[in-house]
Structures are given as structure tokens and as C-alpha cells.
Amino acid sequence: MQLQNMLKQKIGWLESRGNSAEIAISSRIRVARNLRKIPFPQKASRQEQKESFEKIKAVVEEIAYFKGAAILDLQQFDRVDRQFLMERHLISYEHSRGNGVRGLVIGDKELLSLMINEEDHVRLQGMQPGLQLEEVWDILRRIDEEMHKRLDYAFSSEVGYLTACPTNTGTGMRASILMHLPALVMNEEINKVLQALNKIGMVARGLYGEGTKVMGDLFQISNQVTLGPNEEGIIDNLKRIVKQVIDYEIKGRNVLFKENKGKVMDGIYRAYGVLVNARQVSFAETMEFLSKVRLGVYFNLELNTELDTLNELMILTQPAHVQESVGKELSPSRRDFIRAEMIREKLKSGK
């Protein structure tokens, strides 16, 4: 699969549908699995990595959900290509920078993917737009069961699935919701919310997950505990907490618009004005302005755009995406110029 072709394809989890899609952008679940009698990828020899890659690849080709899926050998892709895949949330930062025999399986509309030989042999991931954790797990569970029949997983009857990092042992599940929380940030309540999440076994990370910074008021809220509660318990708990955060955000937005309507509207229209007129704009600036415009769409302001367009720009304006769009590496200033041109075209067309 040519990565440039992916630029033209719609990403399924970016569609503004599902529960509370204006705040809860997408739901993601990933499960970590390892093969018995083969060392974890970081400790495995190149031959052992190749063995696990081939075993997993052969099984994936038998799974109906992955029919027609692209199976990529990451050794064949350069740094920008791998960053592009990370920006689409198909691989982790660690997988994009790792060495050795590594792979990626990409399902239809990028709603399913599977990392081979990341920290664990298998990192199976499912995504859906909005707050749809149960829908994600329903599909992922079926795939996991099919793979389990064909692969000899490292499993303990006492603790569950064995993983490279002890924090993943047990269910091996990480469930997360990508959330847009500008009101909590603007009202300076976000730190209080994040601290409360940490106390109840949840964590909030940046746009690309663990170890990445928050941009555009976007937070990935996920479970920290994988050992103890079962998969359904993890999902129910996260969903309950996320609904509370959504309520806090809605109340915060109402307060903002009631008490500072003029200032809020001015910030939104200024951000929109920059995006439709700027000749150079960095990705950090883009995310800041897109966050404000998303808020404007929520308040039904007269902006010639919609959430689907803004969600798409959130992905297409990332550094590697801009470079893939022209097929070559670019200097930061040149990327800023092309990014601004891309945004102007998208917003002025209204779609």
C-alpha cells in the first residue's frame, strides 16, 4: 500500500457520529498478547522476531475481519513514513522508532490495526468514532478469540496474559477515549479533573498516547489497571468516568458562553480568521486554532465548516502528513506554508 493513497482515504474513527462525538471524538481499545516460548520482542534475536512475525502474519490472513488488510513490513519504511503511520494512530511512538523485524496490519477504514513485535508480539487495536467502547470490544473480542485458537499465547491461569511490561499483565487491555476539553482548560479546571482521574486508576495522556504532550485541548483518557477487573469491568468503569468528564465539560462550556460570550466568540472567530487567511502556520498553532473553531461549531456559530472537516484537518496537517502529501521531506518553514495552503482550501470549500 502506498502511503500517499492513504491520504485520500477516509478514516472511519474520525467521523462525527456516535455518542457525544463533539466532545468524545473516538473510542479505542487495544490488547497485548505474546507467543509462548518466544522471547519478548526486545529480548528476541532477529531470527526469533522473524519467526513471530511470520506466525502472526499467517494467522491474520485467515481472520475474516482482516480480509484485504494491508500487512506492512516496517523495515521497508523510512522515518517520515513511520511517523506518518504514528500520526494516524496506527502505531505507537516506540514502534515507529524501534529496530528489528516489525510489522503493521491495517484493516478497513483504519478501524482495526495490529502491531507486530512492538513491546509485545501482538498489539491488536480497534477504534470507533464517539463513545462506542462496547462496539469496539465486541469486534476486538471476536478477533482475539479467533487468533487465540491459532496461536499459542503466553497465559497464566493465576494472573492472565503475560506481557513485556507488568502494568499490562492480566487482561492486557487498554481502553481509551480521545476527548476535546477546551472549556475545562479555559476555566482552569483541567488539573483538578486530571488529579481526580489519577486517584481512581485512570490516566490522561497527550495526542499520541504515553509520553506525548497535550495539543489542541485533546486528552486521551484511559485505564491504568489491567490486572484484577475483567474486560467488561474496565470498559464499564471507563465509560462511567468519561460520561462524568463530558458532563463537566458541557457545564464548563455553558458557563463560558454565559459569562464571557463576547470574549469567547471573539477568540473563535479570530482563530477561524487565521486559519482561512494565514500563509504560514505551525502544527501547534493549527491545533490551538482548530480547538477554538471546534468549540464554535458546538455553539452553532456561523462558521463555514463542520466537525468532520476539522477532525480531518487534525490528522492531515501533522508534519509527516504534510510531507507525504508532496512526496518528499520538507523544512519546517516549507511545511508551515503548505499546511496553511491546505487549511485554506479545506475551509473555504466548506468540506
Provide the CATH top-level class of the largest domain: Alpha Beta
Q: What is the third-level CATH name, the topology of the largest domain?
A: Creatine Kinase, Chain A, domain 2
**Which of globular, elongated, flat, extended, rod-shaped describes the shape?**
globular
Helix content: 40-55%
Strand order, largest beta sheet? 2-3-4-5-1-8-10-9
Q: Radius of gyration in whole Å, from Cα?
A: 21 Å
Strand content: 15-25%
Order of helices and strands: HEHEHHEEEHEEEHHEEHHHHHH
Structural class: alpha+beta
CATH homology superfamily of the largest domain: Glutamine synthetase/guanido kinase, catalytic domain
Number-wise, the strands total 10
| Low-pLDDT stretches | none
CATH architecture of the largest domain: 2-Layer Sandwich
Distance between the termini: 26 Å
Instruction: Characterize the biggest β-sheet.
Output: 8 strands, antiparallel
What does this protein structure show overall?
The protein has 351 residues and is an alpha+beta fold. The protein folds into two domains: 3-253, 2-Layer Sandwich (Creatine Kinase, Chain A, domain 2), CATH 3.30.590; 260-349, no CATH class. The chain has 13 helices and ten strands. Strand 4 (112-116) and strand 5 (122-129) form a beta hairpin. The radius of gyration is 21 Å and the shape is globular. The chain starts with a helix and ends with a helix.
What tags apply to this protein structure?
alpha+beta; 8-stranded antiparallel β-sheet; 351 residues; single chain; globular; 13 helices; Creatine Kinase, Chain A, domain 2; two-stranded antiparallel sheet
